[in-house]
Amino acid sequence: MFYNLLYPLSGHFPYFNIFKYLTVRTAGALLTALLLALFFGSPIINLLKKKQQNGQPIRAYSPENHLAKSGTPTMGGILILGATLVSVFLWADLTNPFIAMSVFVLLGFGCIGAYDDWLKLSTGKSNGMKSRWKFAAQSVLSLVITYAILKLTPRDLYCGVTIPFFKNYIVYIGYGYFIWGICVITGASNAVNLTDGLDGLAIVPAMYVGGSFLLISYLTGHAHFSDYLYIHYIPKSGELAVFLGAMIGGSLGFLWFNAPPAKVFMGDSGSLSIGAVLGSIAMMVHHELVLSIVGGLFVIEAVSVILQVLFFKISHGKRIFLMAPIHHHFEKKGWPEPTITIRFWIITTVLALIGLMTLKIR
Predict the structure, then answer these.
(1) Rounded to an integer, what distance in angstroms lies between the CA atom of residue 24 and that of residue 32?
(2) pLDDT tens digit sequence for 91-133
(3) Cβ atoms of residues 273 and 113 within 8 Å
(4) Closest listed residue to residue 152, CA positions, set 215, 222, 234
(5) With a threshold of 0.70, does the pTM exceed it?
(6) Which residues, 6+ apart, have CB-to-CB distance to 71 below 8 Å?
(7) Are 240 and 282 in contact (CB under 8 A)?
(8) DSSP tag of 191
């Protein structure tokens, strides 16, 4: 709103010229979302406590120490979504199609997650939506956003997947790009959801990944920088930095209340939407494989579940891990929850640095 309403007046009021700069608006979006989340955090948590008699249902097979978390309210993701959307409305260029697509993803997957959370709360069970229906809804939204991305994709990148560490190597996959879109967006959404099992475990890596793609989107949307780094220039994609700045700010504010011991859980309303946004933005800037590096922790968590299920079926009841996702395996081995969380944060830090190195090493 500031950009669309105030920047055009910069000819009469020179100070309004600051709204032209992405860096200023990104910082403004981050700080605004942070302050909104901090200010409204306690009232929203109190409301959730009032509405949720028993809090988030604890899975029957969860580690024993999770029983102490019984009664903690869930659906804290609405705090992130609300702060992000308000901040984006204030600071982003509302005519930019990449912003419209990101808002669509955030709201669409947020609604799926909220419905899943509501089912868990209303039934008192930890199952929520049936997996096939959840995947179907996610896939439909992923197909819609993939189609929209292709409409804005430069001709040389159309239906193509860029390869990290190579300057101009692109694999063109034709209509298979729609399957690729489902894999990237839905996969990222569910991977973040699977990681969200300990206090603060998912939200900090999500901010690391968001910060990495904030920089990537800024560079891909800047003709001079993209040319210097030999990455593909994607017009208007730099505005995604403002959106990601807002989401990082909202996530920081949420972390204030989600830090151990958590006063509120993110729930599927937050994890599914944040993961989907990260996946869709990776596709918008055509750095999907970089997402698998920077978000390697999410990949590891998801793969641990897949391997556990497959091996259990193949071996007729045997397991690779004591429990999946893998963070529960380390809980079963006796690692304290804060130790697991902080060590996973460290792993994400290293992976983020490796992912950002792909921008220069080509």
Answers:
(1) 12
(2) 999 999 999 999 999 999 999 999 999 998 888 777 778 889 9
(3) yes
(4) 234
(5) yes
(6) 54, 55
(7) no
(8) H
